[in-house]
Each structure stands twice: as C-alpha cells, then as structure tokens.
Design goal:
Blueprint lengths: L4 H12 L5 E4 L6 E11 L2 H15 L10 E3 L8 E5 L12 H9 L1 H7 L5 E7 L11 E2 L23 E6 L17 E2 L18 H12 L3 E6 L7 E3 H11 L7 E4 L15 H8 L4 E5 L24 E7 L18 E4 L3 E4 L7 E4 L40 E4 L2 E4 L2 H19 L4 H11 L3 E4 L2 E4 L15
Parallel strand pairs: 7-9, 7-11, 8-9, 11-12, 12-13, 13-14
Antiparallel strand pairs: 1-2, 2-4, 2-5, 3-4, 5-10, 6-18, 15-18, 16-17, 19-20
Length: about 475
Amino acid sequence: MAPQRFHEQFDQIQRALPDVPLAMGPDDSAEFIYERGVVLARDGEEARIVEDAVRSHFTATEGLVPDQVRRAGPQTNRSGITRIHVGDPAEGGRSADRTVAGALRALREAEARAGRRLVSRNHVVSIAVNACPGDEPVPAPRTEPPNPSAAQPPPAADGADAVGVLVIDTGLTHDYRSYPPLARTEGDAQVRETDADGILQQYVGHGTFIAGLVAAVAPHTDVTVRNTLDDAGAILESEFGERLFDAVEGGWPDIISLSAGTSNGRVDGLLGAAAFMAELRTHDTLLVAAAGNNASAAPFWPAAYATLPDYADAVLSVGALRGDGAFGACFSNHGPWVRAYAPGERLTSALTGFDTPVPYVYQHSTYDACRYGFGYACTCRSPRHTGVLSEAQQVTPGKPDQVMFEGLAAWSGTSFATPLVAGLVAAYMTTHQETDPRAAARRLLAENTEFAEVRGAHVPALVPPTWRPVPVGPA
C-alpha cells in the first residue's frame, strides 16, 4: 500500500503553522489546503458586503452562529485583503469546513450581480507545490558535474548590467558560497536549517538548489534569493501577496522565479495575490512560475495567470519533463495553461554548501508503483527509501533511512524545471543584449525547436544546452 502523501504533507504543514487550523478541500478531497473558519474579501465595501451576506445566510441556516462573523487582524495592507472569521475554527479536524462552505454559498448571488469574485477561502500557498513533492533529494557525488552543468558565461557587453533574477523561496543555506556557481548570488539566510539533533530539515536547501540551477544556466546573472517561504515552504494566501510585495521592495527585478502556488478550484486567480499581480502588470518584470506537482489539469496559481489575457506577457508557466526530456514527468501538472516545459526529473544542484556534511532523514517512503499510474521508473518508486511519516511504514519496514549530504543533490519537481526556464530567459537576454525580459521570453519560445509529448499534447520543451538526459527505463 502506498503512503498517503498528501495527508502526510498536510500534517507536516499543520505542524509548521501550529496557530492556524487547517482543512482540506474542496469537500475533503486532497486538492488544496485552507484555513478553517476564515474567508477573504477585498478591503472596504466588498468586505462589508461579504460580512452582511454571510450573517444573513447564517441567520437562516440552522447550527451556524451569525455573531461569529467578524474581521480579523489589521485592515490596511498592500495586498488589499481582509480576513473575515465566519465560524469557530476549533470545530472539526482536517475535514472541510462547513462554515467556510456556507460563506461561499452566501455570496453566489452577489458575485453573479457584481460579475466578479467577492469571497475566497484562505488557501495555503506552498513550495511543496500543493503539498505534493515530486520526490525528496538524493545525495549526488561531488565527482560528478551538476546537471545541467555550468555554462560558459558569454562576454558582457560594454556597460551592460547583468540580468537580475529574484528567487522567491526558502532562503540560502549558511555555507552556500562554498559552491562556486553561486559566487554572484546574494540574499536571505534560511531561517532554521537543522533540528536539535543536527538533522537537515525537509525543504531546507530548496532555495539554494534553485539558485544553483539559475546560475548554471545563466552564469552572467545576478541572483537574489528571498526567504519569503521559510515555514516548511508554506504561507497563507492572506499573507502571500504582502510577502511578495516585501520581496520586490528593493526594486523590481528582470525575472522572478517562483516555485510555489496552490490550486483553488477556480479559473480567475488568487484573491490574496490580486493586488501584487495587478502591480506586476505595470512593470517589465517576467514572472516564471511552477505549474505544480499534482499530475492535474486544474489551474495552479500564480502559474495559471499565464493564460489570462491581461497576464499573457507577464507570466510564463512551467511544467516538468521526465528524465529523458521526451515526455512529461508523471507528477507534473499540465493543460493549456502551462505554456512551456523543461527537464524536471533528477536535476543536480547544490542542496547545501560544501563546508560540512549534513545528515538528512527521509520523510516519505518510496511508493511500490507510480502513484499516477505511469509505466516508467519514475521518482515515485526510485530510489528506494523508508521515510518517517509513512503510515506504519507501509512501503518498506524498518528504521527510516538517513543519508549524508556533502553539497550536491539530485531532486525532482516543477520547482526545479522553473529556474531552468528563468535561467534560459536570462541567458537569452545576455546573449542578445535584450533588456525586456518579456520580449526575450516571447522570442525564446518563438525560436524554440524542441518539443515533447505531455498527455498526448505536443508542447514546447525548453532545454538548457548543458543539460544531460537521465536514462528512463520501464518500471
């Protein structure tokens, strides 16, 4: 029996956010995670409309208490979002929240009249790409070059500034500079790298790994990493927009690489990120965003903004290809809202610095078979290891496996296909002396001659020239 990966991740994210009672949705299905007893609305008049409609609905609905409807927290912020309590979050466990479902129903007629969304769940945005990682990192020997290996930096044009890439993620490990490709990288430190026993925590190294991939593909690039997502890579939607504004406070970069998001059961984006996305449209910045690891065609935000007409130029959504680059990775989200794909299985980059070896204990056990039904030797089932969280050690009996990282790791996910594309756009800008990242992305896609097959569709495959295919065999 395979481990219940989403439920394991749910529990881990709940531990990382102990003061936020969480539920699964929609209707208890494992598609996204959200805050119980709370909805979101835009500040001002729309928040009042939501409060009034919800109170009226609860008054007419047995078992719900209208005086629980109240605003929570400060009402003035750059994201323009108000949290509204609609019930007692202590009621229920991880199951879907009936008070939130009731609040959403209460606004249906008002939303129809307004022609836009007025209320939303408060979703969890996560670097685990909707709490479903492609796999966990595997130690890679220092004697082997990373994959993709570092490209030769092109000669800089006289007086030309280096392209700037902002990685919004978990931060950098303390000794990241001991990895030579990260010599041009700056940014925030990872808040907490190890537990009390010196064991590397899950997702520590995520931001460092991503920065290493950007630097390998685009060596003449200034990479900055922000630790916006430092709590197990998870943040509430109500805080997400504000933290995105914080990340660009020092100036909007050429390119943002974002390997986080959530689905929400809708096709019009995240209410909590709406103000930031509107501001993005007024700048030249290109947002390169991960499509997510749910093997789903459901839109995953912010990546899915790429197919909304107002954001077609501003956002480039990225899915993952399997190790040979010929087909989609089993875990990758897909659909017409994913504009490009890049290699995303068993890429090799720096997980930690090279100064001191660090032990790591696997959290999830390997599956007996591909959890998505694919027939190749995917990351679900290889390499074999036993994890801490798997229920009753269902996959492999015995003590959880511990490994040692000495710098490099192989890791999989749309999280890592994304910085490859961000790096390719940056490298195109440098090579062609292009100052507009959105124009560079358009031309890169127009000139691309590589394609792959994903769920029967012929899709653009953006492949770094120094990437090496990984053999893919039958399961």
